[in-house]
UniProtKB/TrEMBL annotation:
InterPro entries noted in UniProt: Aerotolerance_reg_N, Class_I_gatase-like, Double_TM_dom, DUF4159
Domain DUF4159, first and last residues per copy: 702-919
Record protein name field: RNA-binding protein
Keyword Transmembrane: yes
Pfam families: BatA, DUF4159
Keyword Transcription regulation belongs to the record: no
Start and end residues of each Aerotolerance regulator N-terminal domain: 6-80
Chain ranges passing through the membrane: 6-27, 60-78, 630-653, 660-679
Keyword annotations of the record: Membrane, Transmembrane, Transmembrane helix
Length: 939
């Protein structure tokens, strides 16, 4: 609009400034000295009274003040105007291109006033007007008269969209038909629509006589670009257009009813256009956030909508193995923890006993429970787990040796599993490890690229069923399932047919593992199994539910919006005419689409890109600002100041000095001082009965045996462990304290590295809670040595088991134990202290069973089992305690079968090797790898 930076409405009045020197001379003029006439009676008074002297002329600073007053009056009468608007337009059609995007909502009325003023100018000069709005779906850029242009302006409004300037320019080019426009007035929001926005250069190609760029106040253009629900707080990313000065804003979090429930701070440093704010709130409160907005801003960009997929899930983690702090990469939960930690609140059980930890976890109403290689749960936990799943919970299971050995009728697996597992080089093997196939289009992994470089060496197989393909979310190249699912009422059971660590496949160490877990977790209900709403991410298309207006308000008016494809990553998708920002879905579940993709940075339009001279104008609300009122106000204030100074110099404001009286006093209370006296220290005694026994057992190593309730069996166990304790003391540096008999139903078991359990068919059968305690003890890293004392392994199917063997089978039927095998010849147990080839006790015919090494079944000669850990279970029938039992005189209590003192000596050596294996399992296992390490060093 050809705005001039500064002008005077009445410039002729400025000639009055020439009179300022005359005014100065008049103010500084000294009056003539008066003549003195002596009057004798006054001489006496003259000598008594103090003479008041009057200066011959006014002070210079007072004169300057009066000069400024005169100058302010003269300038006010001249009426200076800032940005005085001119109304001249170039000859030819005028093109009025208006951004009615989200960034124009804050000052939309001023933009309309500016456009109306331009239309008035065009009407005065009889120039046709082509009016186009960049955020409208359809364009009619035909040049028309002023009345038609005003109708378009009256019908227009800001839209919650990024402007599509290319379509608007194409409409202008077609409507002009080669006619050269006179003036192109581009009322812009000041923001580049994208990195390829060349609107000014495209306007210059129309060769206008006058190109004007009219912008508003860019300091109000700010947008929220992303939000991340972290572990302790919510992080909100924002970008602003003007980054010259530092600025701070308040973030407001609202719930689904629009009520503010939390607030945070967003601060930009000087020169910074992108920043991140935080909202600190508890996990439960953050899950109630429905939208984040900037206080004082009313635009679609200053609002970030949140949906159910954004809410942070509570995920419980359970494993069938004890964690290894020294080798975390081999832990079943390590990769799961690392994959989900940025997206979910992870919960791990406080106690290893699943009979206690599972009810406690389910009471916390988690969204997801993940089980890594758990084959068998305590019997009393199946019913509450199934009820939790039916109410909307999501159970994710990972395979492993324990799950492969689990019973086929497990109700917590989505498909029927074949017994055993399929391993490369085994009975059910491939010719080579298998890669993954493309993900199907119907599962949560739809749209993900097929992972390259991921090979599967071992898996659990699913029995073929007619609906197996429908339940398969991912499969291998040969068609065998990798991830299967079964929906159970409102919940689902998901099974990864490989382990959660990298022993069976490369999947856990890939980025696809993170994305796969994240997508499955996001399918769960954010509030847990009892939540009433869920994410709407599995539908084929989501209809518009609530759409955002340009002012940042959700409205039920959906207009021409089309259904949204939920399979895209909406955080990276910008809103369009077909899919404006808002909520898509229904009241039962919806997905949020925000205005800008995550990571967007607002950029200014650069007038230099036009390639021609561009006139920069401001909106009409900032034009024609007259300085006359301010100058008259200044002149009045100077006049008041001059009057006060004159009155002061005349003595009108003479003041009397009054001496200050009184002083402040500080009183110290005697009672307060008494409270500062030292007080005697008192501590509460929170000790409990039996704490002294626990402390004694913590300070010393004890061998422990299970009290069966049968006096003869328990006495033999005590004598046997006493004999082994003495042998360890004499032959090794280990000096255990006397053995301890434990009641496995109530005593603390974690104090003992190994528990000897003599099986007796006539002893009472342990209860389910007792079995759960033993299971928890084994999960936590303890080992139970089962001894049937019948020379036959309870798991050996070559002959009928004895009564003790049947009792052992009944006990093991309720325990989640891994696959077992006899101690291999290269196992660390054969060399942990003595070199042994077998493990005799009072008998020598039964092998010693331990946890099977996964690599051993593939023909590998690796030294130890997975993770270099200690087997949680040992089984023998050789009656170790009977061979170790020594009376007070040092004589053997029971003879070996056959009688052979050498066999007894080897039985003691077996006990020593078991204890060394228990106490130094990781260290001893590492020694097995020394030859391979030395060979590598030699290379």
């Amino acid at each position: 609009m050809n705005a001039l930076p500064f002008a005077f409405a009445n410039p002729a009045v400025l000639l009055a400034l020439l009179s300022l020197p005359v005014i100065w001379w008049l103010l500084r003029l000294t009056p003539p000295r008066p003549q003195t006439e002596a009057f004798p009676p006054l001489k006496i008074l003259a000598s008594v009274l103090k003479r008041e002297e009057t200066p011959a002329q006014s002070p210079w600073w007072l004169t300057l003040l009066r000069m400024l007053l005169a100058a302010a009056v003269i300038l006010a009468l001249a009426d200076p105007v800032v940005n005085q608007r001119t109304t001249t337009l170039a000859t030819g059609p005028m093109v009025l291109l208006i951004d009615n995007s989200w960034a124009s909502a804050a000052d939309w009325q001023r933009r309309l006033d500016t456009a109306h003023a331009l239309v008035d100018d065009a009407e005065a000069q009889d120039v046709p007007v082509s009016t186009v709005f960049t955020a409208d779906r359809n364009h009619d850029a035909t040049p028309a008269n002023a009345a038609t242009a005003r109708e378009k302006l009256a019908a227009a409004g800001p839209q919650p969209l990024v402007p599509d300037r290319r379509r608007a320019l194409q409409a202008i080019r077609e409507s002009l038909g080669g006619t050269t426009p006179g003036t192109i007035a581009f009322i812009s929001d000041g923001v580049k629509s994208d990195d390829t926005d060349t609107v000014l250069a495209d306007l210059a190609t129309l060769k206008p006589q006058d190109l004007r760029l009219i912008e508003g106040d860019s300091t109000k253009t700010i947008a929220l670009t992303a939000a991340a629900n972290g572990a302790d707080q919510m992080t909100v990313s924002a970008s602003r257009l003007a980054g010259t000065n530092a600025a701070s804003y308040t973030l407001i979090a609202q719930d689904g009813q629009g009520r503010p429930i939390a607030s945070g701070a967003l601060a930009f440093a000087a020169g910074e256009t992108a920043a991140a704010g935080t909202i600190a709130a508890p996990f439960e409160m953050r899950n109630d956030f429905a939208r984040i907005s900037i206080e004082g801003q009313a635009s679609a960009g200053s609002v970030h909508l949140l949906d159910d997929g954004f809410k942070r899930r509570r995920v419980a983690l359970l494993t069938g193995e004890a964690g290894d702090d020294f080798q975390p990469l081999l832990s079943p939960l390590y990769y799961i923890n690392r994959a989900l930690q940025p997206y979910a609140d992870l919960i791990e059980p406080k106690v290893p006993d699943l009979a206690q930890s599972i009810p406690e976890i389910l009471a916390g109403n988690p969204s997801v429970v993940i089980m890594a290689d758990i084959g068998r749960l305590p019997a009393e936990t199946y019913e509450p787990m199934q009820r939790w799943i039916a109410n909307g919970g999501t159970l994710i299971r990972f395979a492993g040796p324990r799950l492969a050995a689990a019973p086929a009728d497990d109700p917590l697996v989505p498909v029927i599993l074949r017994q055993g597992e399929r391993a490369f080089g085994g009975a059910l093997s491939w010719a080579e490890p298998q890669p993954l196939a493309d993900f199907p289009a119907f599962g949560p992994f739809a749209g993900m690229a097929r992972p390259d470089g991921i090979l599967v060496k071992r898996q659990v197989l699913a029995e073929p069923t007619p609906d197996l393909a429908e339940r398969t979310w991912a499969s291998l190249a040969d068609g065998t399932p990798l991830v299967t699912v079964r929906n159970v009422n409102g919940g689902r059971i998901v099974l990864f047919h490989v382990s959660a660590e990298a022993t069976w496949s490369d999947l856990p160490i890939s980025g696809h593992f993170v994305e796969m877990l994240r997508r499955i977790v996001q399918l769960s209900r954010s509030g847990g199994a009892s939540a009433e709403t869920g994410a709407a991410t599995t539908a084929e298309a989501l209809p518009p539910f609530r759409l955002l207006t340009a002012e940042g308000v959700l409205s039920t008016e959906t207009g021409d919006a089309k259904p949204l494809d939920p399979h895209r990553d909406l955080s990276k998708v910008a809103s369009t005419f077909d899919n404006p920002p808002g909520l898509y879905g229904s009241e039962d579940g919806f997905t949020a689409l925000n205005l800008l993709p995550a990571g967007t940075t607002l950029q200014r339009l650069d007038p230099a890109t036009a390639g021609m001279a561009v006139t920069l104008d401001s909106l009409i609300g900032e034009e024609a600002w007259s300085a006359k009122p301010a100058l008259f106000t200044l002149a009045f204030l100077l006049l008041v100041a001059d009057s006060l100074i004159v009155l002061f110099m005349g003595g009108a404001f003479a003041r009397r000095l009054r001496p200050a009286a009184g002083a402040a006093m500080i009183l110290v209370s005697a009672f307060a001082a008494a409270t500062l006296l030292p007080m005697s220290e008192a501590r509460a005694d929170d000790s409990k009965p039996g704490d002294d026994i626990i402390m004694e057992r913590l300070n010393n190593t004890h061998l422990a045996y299970v009290i069966t309730g049968e006096p003869d069996v328990d006495r033999m166990s005590e004598l046997g462990l006493n004999g082994l304790t003495d042998y360890l003391t004499y032959r090794t540096t280990l000096e255990p304290s006397p053995p301890v008999g434990v009641d496995i139903s109530k005593d603390e078991l974690s104090l003992f590295p190994i528990i000897y359990w003599p099986i007796s068919a006539s002893a009472p059968m342990p209860s389910n809670s007792t079995i759960s305690r033993i299971d928890a003890y084994m999960r936590a890293g303890g080992t139970v040595l089962f001894d049937t004392r019948d020379q036959f392994s309870a798991l050996d199917t070559s002959g009928a088991p004895t009564a003790n063997g049947e009792r052992l089978q009944a006990i093991l039927g309720n325990l989640d134990i891994p696959p077992l095998e006899p101690v291999p010849t290269d196992h660390v147990l054969t060399k942990s202290f003595y070199l042994l080839s077998n493990f005799p006790g009072r008998y020598s015919g039964s092998p010693l069973w331990i946890e099977a090494r996964q690599d051993a079944r593939n023909g590998s000669s690796a030294g130890t089992q997975s993770g270099d850990g200690v087997s949680p279970i040992m089984i023998t029938g050789n009656d170790f305690a009977g061979a170790w039992a020594i009376d007070a005189n040092g004589a053997a209590v029971l003879p070996t079968v056959p009688p052979d003192e050498t066999q007894r000596d080897y039985a003691f050596r077996t006990g020593v090797n078991i204890m060394m294996y228990m106490l130094t399992g990781n260290y001893k296992a590492d020694q097995v790898h020394i030859p391979a390490l030395l060979e590598r060093l030699g290379q």
